Amino acid sequence: MDGNILAYFAESSGKYGLYFYNLETSTNSKQLFSSTDIALLAVSGNKLVYGRGNSIYFYDISKSEEKLIDDRFFMPVVSGDLVAYPLPGEYCYDKAVIYDIESDEKKEITPPDIGPILDFKGNEILYAACSKAQFDPTWKTYYLYDINTGEYKKLSQEKTKDEDTTSKGWMVISSWINKGSIEDNAVFFSKDVNAKKIIAYDRALD
Fold this sequence. Notes:
Blueprint: E1 5-12, E2 15-22, E3 27-33, E4 38-44, E5 47-52, E6 55-60, E7 65-70, E8 77-79, E9 82-88, E10 93-100, E11 105-109, E12 117-121, E13 124-128, E14 141-146, E15 152-156, E16 170-174, E17 181-182, E18 186-190, E19 197-202
Antiparallel strand pairs: 1-2, 2-3, 4-5, 5-6, 6-7, 8-9, 9-10, 10-11, 12-13, 13-14, 14-15, 16-19, 17-18, 18-19
């Protein structure tokens, strides 16, 4: 959901469709697909970004048009008119792509230890680290990366508060989470691959 647009996938009479509902005008529309392999829906204004089959698409509600972004489907995330997704290599990932919906331009970036991108806000992406040199199967390290400047911050937490962690910038909450989230003054992500705890990183206390 973004603004007045609520989008979702649904099945009716054996046909899978991408539905969107305008909360302001109370109108409902849908775009039907022949494929049942659709997932990872993101909404940005009048644009819907999703994976279908092995590709990434966006659907322009105002124009009733669908367009292919990339024929490689790897977990896209959206911020405004920009779409970000990683490209896998022989081992882990090689780079990430930033796609501008309005200009139809792509830019490749090479953040350190790039892995699955969990969130995208403004000019920052949050991703789980995938190191080719020292792969960590617990996935407990994350990066916050600025796509414009290339500056980044490594985020990892080896211990929780009950294990005598003293860093002021960290708070641990017991819960379940399967992704990370960038907020105004905090970054949230799962402690490790088991996702039994959420880590909250307070940027104001850094």
